What we know:
The structure holds 2 protein chains of 2 kinds. Helices cover 59% and strands 3% of the residues of chain A. By secondary structure, chain A is an all-alpha fold. By secondary structure, chain B is an alpha/beta fold. In chain B, 24% of the residues lie in helices and 19% in strands. Chain B contains 11 helices and 17 strands. In chain B, the strands form 3 sheets. In chain B, strands 1, 2, 5, 6, 7, 8 and 17 form a 7-stranded mixed beta sheet that branches. The longest helix of chain B has 21 residues. The interface between A and B is large, with 75 and 71 residues.
Amino acid sequence: MDRREALRSVAILLGTAISAGTTDILFSSYTLPEGEKNAVTFSAEQLRALTEIADVIIPTTKSSPGAKAAGVGKFIPMMINDCYPAKQQQSFHKGLMAFEARAKKTYRKSFALIPLVERKKMLTALRQETLDQKANKNPEKADITYFFTVVRDLTSLGYFASEIGCTKAREYVMIPGSYDGAYPLKPGQKSWAT
Amino acid sequence: MNLNINLKAENTYDAIVVGSGISGGWAAKELTEKGLKVLLLERGMNIEHIKDYDGAMKNPWDVKHAGRLTEEMKRTHPVQKRDYPYNEVTEKWWVNDLECPYTEVKRFDWYRGFHVGGKSLMWGRQSYRFGDVNFEENSKDGYGNDWPIRYKDLSSWYDYAERFAGISGQNEGLEGILPDGQFLPPMDLNIVEKSVKESIKQKWGNERLLTIGRVANLTVPHNGRGNCQYRNLCSRGCPFGAYFSTQSSTLPAAMDTGNLTLRPYSIVNHIIYDKDTKKAKGVAVIDALTNKTMEFYAKIVFVNGSTLGTTFILLNSTSDAHPTGLGNGSGQLGHNLMDHHFRCGANGEFEGFDKYYTYGRRANGFYIPRFRNVGKDKRDYLRGFGYQGSASRQNWQNDVAELAFGAEFKQKMTTPGAWKMGFGGFGEMLPYYENRVYIDHNKKDKWGQPVLAIDCEYKENEKKMRTDMMNDAAEMLEAAGAKNIKTYDNDCYPGMAIHEMGTARMGKDPKTSVLNEWNQMHEVKNVFVTDGACMPSIGCQNPSLTFMALTARAADFAVKELKKGNL
């Protein structure tokens, strides 16, 4: 009996034990428990704002497309809903609302609709507030600065895990096949995606 | 009546192996190859080689949460989530802690994989021999009991295990501390590691040595398996069969004999003892899917359920003759639990290598064998530690400002950054009688079984050693010209190294040990334990290769004894 055949016979022996049904019961797709699931929902306008915020954090440059093209606008709300406890989801959401309120107060428009130069200005100011918040610990700014920290982190995570981030911004080799521990750095060498 | 007899005949084998991880897979291979009809019992699901490695060919962008844990994963895996091995891609290979609880008298991180192949699928693959320094130390310093064997008893079995498993590495002539072996060609050290190796040699001569890790990854095709493709995604299962696992190696060999029956979803609750023959008759099993109980019978039983899994089964196998657990006349069963202590060392940056980068993702690092308390060296603690680590060029520049964003941030994140090298110490823990596990009857698992309580801690000797683990690493980095050297101690709790060992130790004397020099129970001659439970001490080396060698040796002995009619 060859190996492949031998291994197949293991599965046959198990036939009933690993029917699709049992696999489903044992490893049903993980969703958040009811109490935590989708503690916040994002409006279409908020989703557009998140997309544009991400695209300022990682913009399109000569070398490669930015966060918007990489789909980070959808990645962020998905991560918020799946990977954060309800309280943090709410804090993030409140921070986003406060940030949008600022845009509307200053420019009478959603963040997604103001000119790029103004978007950069708003985020530059928020970054400074977030840095200052470490010392200030101003409770009124807790949500908006938490929002900035998380939206930046998720933009970076989502972008460098995306196909564009891996293959355009960085260089990705799925199956290197060998190892070279003294590989000459080429001009314009991008870092490896892993 | 006939039916019952038939059922008994159907459920009778020459040998039963409990557990299909590294040592159980080896037991199944050796026993079937010697002609025994073997039933291999595994408590979890089947995972078929290649076909069931769902995550193996995923690109980064195919992983929904970019590797992060969802709240639901955290809820169902409150222990597994404590450290990195449990991640989004391999999450179904780690135990659901809610279904399989245990009691932490003191914090103990118990990482478990319940499926065919066990932790052989997710293991770190570092493979080092124990030397005579390790086998002799218990008797020299008085901690623990003396090993009933010495290196000469095991060396040919190490040869045998390495030849089959395929271990790549470099012979260095360190007999006594880290014996040489039957290695495939070594992987390469990178340019920074080579430079550090040279600096260490210049400063310490023969006293300290940096070598490439000895790893169960194939550097050339071997026994019909493909060589490593340098993807460094081993723990997802290798579609090339390039690292040793039950699935890639021992299971197909055992299946080839036609003598193996593998039964997943079979939780061994206890070993059935026959007071008339004073031997084990077989095992009692709970079907994990149906909760039905059943019995299987055999002439010999190999218990390879992982250190604590095995010890649970033995402690749970009580009878009038063995009221505190099978073969526990010594009272040592469940005691002397050990694990390596690590998460402690130093790192630094290297300048002058900016023209070089690395190509490929090497699933291995460097190794610095133990140099403390050997030869003339004498410290204010006992035993010693080795280092593992690697040098690599970071994926981003170091001067990224806090919370930076924008085009410049992106540029820095996509350009190779500084060379950095980390040394992580792996220290030996002494055997302490009071570090133990016992059965907690107040708590039940999903199948109504009582659970283990674990009461284990590191003590003064381990704490003292950690100072050296940090300082010696910093000293070597400094000698090699590193900048920004930082020492670290990220705290360590027993269990974290996933090298738990020692709760059914071997020894010469039945009064002070559970197993004899052949991993055979002193008191129940047809029961063998060849997983980590058997270890009287743990050295500072990664232990799985030693389990392989001990298992092959014990299986050889068991079959000879069986043929002589002694079992």
